[in-house]
Write a structure and sequence with these properties.
There is one protein chain. The protein has 284 residues and is an alpha/beta fold. The protein has 2 domains: 212 residues, Rossmann fold (3-Layer(aba) Sandwich); 54 residues, no CATH class. The chain is built from 14 helices and 6 strands. Strand 2, helix 2 and strand 3 form a beta-alpha-beta unit. The protein is globular. The protein starts with a strand and ends with a helix.
């Protein structure tokens, strides 16, 4: 088992599929958007033909109005019946969570969720200054999660995590990273965005909005979808829409590269060399 990471549009998926065919492996997708059914174009997920060539996990698992988080991703990984897999994608946070592990969370009832929503940073700080010192006062997600833990267990979140340390779920594996310069990556992003438009991105987003009728869904806030929704509101014309998606995708790619650089010890090489390097490293 090994992983291939890199910024969006850098060529990870094509390389993984090629290697999977050579090695007889299957693929676990590290992509927070490809997980959703019906989001095919905006996620740039592998084609129907490619998905039939190589068995994929983590793609088309749930609908856009269903909840998803890293714990559910780990559940998908645990259900894979063997270790002959390539882990590939741009959502490297999932890979990091698998390597480091996450704490087993308590069961959170709907009543607790409602109570936690109105919990303020200052109240949580009074209960657990250690926990709040590590998060921003504006980080409502973590404040709410901290409050949920407190209500469910009666323990300050920091104490709960001390008693429930994270357990790694992934064995130590080689991680290969695509090394790509910013200019080349932007050209690839432009090319991919053009393909998304040609394949019917705007129609796909129109369908999603008409079916789910809730723009607050996390899936509908993804790059490529949120900009089209703004286009429907008249904020952009079609040319501006294209440019906005390219710009936001490039910004995402930069964040991904920074995260990978600071979080992983990788074997890094240009895309054209990585196939040979990977095959040598796993003694093929």
């Amino acid at each position: 088992m090994f992983a291939i990471i890199g910024p969006t549009a850098s060529g990870k998926s094509d390389l993984a599929i090629k290697l999977a065919e050579i090695l007889g492996y299957e693929i676990l997708s590290l992509d927070s958007l490809s997980i959703y059914k019906e989001i095919d174009i905006a996620s740039a997920k592998p084609s129907y033909e490619e998905l039939n060539k190589v068995k994929h996990y983590g793609i088309n698992e749930i609908y856009p109005n269903e909840k998803f988080d890293v714990t559910k991703f780990i559940e998908i990984y645990k259900k894979i019946p063997h270790q002959k897999i390539i882990i590939v994608g741009g959502t490297s946070f999932y890979l990091k969570a698998m390597i480091n592990g996450i704490s087993q969370m308590p069961k959170i009832s709907e009543n607790i969720k409602q109570k936690a929503k109105s919990f303020s940073y200052e109240r949580l700080k009074h209960i657990d200054p250690e926990f709040t010192s590590k998060i921003s006062p504006n980080d409502t997600y973590r404040v709410t999660k901290g409050a949920e833990i407190y209500f469910a267990t009666g323990l300050p979140p920091s104490r709960f995590f001390q008693l429930n340390p994270p357990k790694p779920v992934l064995p130590k594996i080689p991680i290969f990273e695509i090394d790509i310069d910013r200019k080349t990556l932007r050209q690839r992003i432009i090319k991919r965005t053009k393909k998304m438009f040609e394949n019917g991105l705007i129609d796909e987003v129109a369908y999603l909005e008409a079916k789910y009728k809730d723009r607050r869904l996390p899936a509908l806030k993804a790059i490529g979808i949120k900009e089209v929704l703004d286009y429907f509101n008249g904020i952009y014309n079609k040319k501006e829409l294209f440019e906005k998606i390219v710009t936001n995708t490039a910004r995402l790619a930069k964040r991904q590269q920074t995260f990978n650089k600071t979080q992983f010890n990788t074997i890094k090489a240009p895309l054209k060399n990585l196939e040979e390097i990977i095959l040598q490293q796993i003694n093929y």
